[in-house]
Design a protein that fits this description.
Distance between the termini: 38 Å
Shape: globular
Largest sheet: 7 strands, mixed
Number of helices: 13
Number of strands: 15
Strand order of the largest sheet: 4-10-9-8-7-5-6
Strand content: 15-25%
Helix content: 25-40%
Order of helices and strands: HEEEHHHEHEHEHEHEEEHHHEEHEEEH
Radius of gyration: 22 Å
Bound molecules: ligand PLZ
Amino acid sequence: MTVQSPLPGGPGLAQVRRLVTEIPGPASRELLARREASVARGVSHVLPVFISAAGGGVLIDVDGNSLIDFGSGIAVTSVGNSAPRVSAAIREQADRFTHTCFMVTPYEEYVSVCEELARLTPGDHGKRSALLNSGAEAVENAVKIARHATGRPAVVAFDHAYHGRTNLTMALTAKNMPYKDKFGPFAGEIYRMPMAYPLRWPGGPEACAANALDMITGLIHTQVGEDNVAAVLIEPIQGEGGFIVPPDGFLPGLAEFCQEHGILLIADEIQTGFCRTGDWFACDHEGVVPDLVTTAKGIAGGMPLAAVTGRAEIMDSVHVGGLGGTYGGNPVACAAALGAIETMAAEDLPGRARRIGEIMLPRLHKLAEAYPVIGDVRGRGAMIAIELVRPGTLEPAADIAARVAKACHTAGLVVLTCGTFGNVLRFLPPLVIGEQLLEEGLSILEDAFAAL
Ligand code: PLZ
């Protein structure tokens, strides 16, 4: 028997951290044992606690502990868990119908989501969208569409990139462990280029944008040939690879190069999109208008939904029946997305994301002054990270990142790590988190560094 929280989730949950057992408590430990005996080992977890309710900035576990959420289920519950408009829309839709398959008999909710995507994604050109179930599936479809529209085979991706775990998206993802190791052979015609990573750029952050653009365009010319490239695929701020923010000018330069050569620019906004970085989309920051945009995660308040949105003529170059899937744009997921998007506008979540950044960054910079193991503080809006190194060097300190994360977890703060070298602590609070809870989370982090 497991103890279930008597409370429903959503923003009505008490917005406090409260530990009533050790982490994990007895009810979670019992579920962990069942998990071990039934769930594949390859599917891992960050914290060994099982959740029974969540909302606002807290997660409640089956032992009654209330944890502060700096993870949002990996940048998904930006509107908060069980956000009222999202759960009401899900309930209403589930009571009317749960599935027809849009490819068999269509329904309005799918069309409404595509209309919202056309309105909200960068650029005011004519757009079309296709809806899918997961981020990886969206990236797969963006590549299919780009190849079809251009008649070219090659796809350019970057160092530190993450695009998913399917065969094509593993090929596009840069990091071997844990994503790719012995899962090959991988899809072909993927060409990897250096990423404009200011902290680690050999010539220093000032030279990074111009040097990286020179290298990338040079390598595409000599190793691939511009005319063979269907698309350049990039996360405008890299997520799993370490919250790497390219220097100003890099993305616009890349967009210009693509346009010059008839190469499609695909922005993977799966982690950065839907208000996370303080704009509706990270590309908005420098006014970059990609040809195709992939979205997922934050789009539907936790329901599985993803999309490819792009220039009408590119999207519509694909023959009738060339895109789809049984569940893509499921009506319940679409209703949730409409509720989530309404929440983002009504509660000014881009503004909330910027405010979160304004609160977090000064405290993190101060922490970095006190602890030279923090080699970099970076991010935008509510997508913030610190990169840990051996003091005075760039040598990654993954062991320290793991220790700090563990200390935070034990104290009831959910934080995630990331980065090619596993040495980045990332912070992705729900955008609706209360400021007191946010400050308390930062204090826990500071305590974790003090206790090192
Ligand atoms: N593109 C930019 O961030 C998902 C992965 C977690 P799916 N990132 C979290 C894990 O370890 O599996 C992601 C992303 C970017 C694509 C994806 C893939 O999205 O919905 O997980 O398929």
